[in-house]
Amino acid sequence: MVASSVWLGESVHSVSRFCLVLGLGCALSLLVRAKHQQMWIVFVVCLVSFLACWRSHIEWQNVGRTHSGDYSGLAVLKTDPQPIGRGVRVVLEINGQRFESWMYGSTARRMTSLVAGETISVKGTRQVTATTNHRLQVRHIVGRFDVKVMSNLAIGAHISESRFELAANRIRSALGKGARVLPGDQSSLFAGLVYGDDSQQPPEMVDRFRASGLAHLTAVSGQNVAFILTVAAPFLTRLRRWFRLTLTLLVLAWFAIMTRLEPSVIRAVTMAGISATVFAIGGRLKAWQVLATTCIGLLLIDPFLLWSVGWWLSIGGSSGLILLSSRIRSTLQGWGLNNHHWVLNWVVPSLAAQLGVLPVAVMVFGWPSAVAIPCNLLAVPVAGIVMLIGIPLALASALLPGTIASFMMWPLGVGVKWVDTVAALGQRFNLPIWLDIAVSLAPLLLVMRHRCDNLET
After folding, report:
1. What whole-number distance in Å separates Cα of residue 203 and Cα of residue 185?
2. Taking every annotated instance into account, which residue ranges of this chain make up the domain ComEC/Rec2-related protein (predicted)?
3. Which of the listed CATH numbers 3.30.420.40, 2.40.50.140, 2.60.40.10, 1.10.286.20 matches domain 69-152?
4. pTM surpassing 0.85?
């Protein structure tokens, strides 16, 4: 209901949208009334839905009120400079509004040495038209800024960075320095696996990861967050309850900033923060309740997440793991795998996540390749090991001489090479579409089989 209200907020004067959302609200109210007989639940749903619609409407008004014309002054980098072809793309914040900027030549080369959060002095022209791209607007970008002159601040480009941003950027730089000893393109793939930086990956690598269904490995998700907390656990568990909660939330916030606040990591960090808070106060929530609370809270904070494909893929994957894993596991156990726990722990998560993201993936990208499931089964465990030990080893490697650093990073290089090899092999298989559909729907058949077995029982 909150998601539909956010969708209505884009065009509150649309009669068709209003009727659809009103119908959904009435159906939900009747369902709640029939099941709980408590009208206060309906009141809370209506109140939160109204707030979501209002927040969405305000955000759309904000991207519609823009300033254009010449500008000379300070600008803050909101994204890392991304090389694309011969140019560099970056998002700049000027007077609280975000502009997309493309740079070429010497300006582009100087821009690539900067990172998100730094401040520069610019002179150029802000261009805003009535036909601003919808895809840019839902990322809070209101127009384009043509840079004519750019220079670093005389007292240092880190002037506007917060302590969190400065710490995150320094750790990110140290990780890149530690991975420099990896040969070829392995360092760029390592950056994608460990902290989601795929800006330096060559187009050929991006293509083979997409074709093999492994592109999600280079996007930070709940798995990365879990590994970060695992690395920090020996220290966190020694603290008192409230100090442990405070430091856990700080670690989560730092990791989210270091990975540039991507929708998937925002979802994962918020779920982890809610779980840690509830645990600290002695409460208990089910996983689906944590996910639902996360969705509602984040949509109220940033309604434009509703238009993010990465957000929906992350929500879909989490929903599959939470709601479908037990059903798929029960079916496989009924087929004689009851005593093979390592097989179940290896296969079930991949099948559940694949089924969870399937609706969004089909609508946006088409049917996933049939090789996606076997490629994930082969690559994900090794990628998980790289994610788990990658940060401490890369940080240590950054402080050591080249020979010792190469020896220390060698196991990670083997893991990264394995993941890349699996992606390359998966790209070579060009299977018929009917096989892609059949393999993609196979986990759904397991869920339906579980449901039929319950009905027979």
Report:
1. 11
2. 193-438
3. 2.40.50.140
4. yes
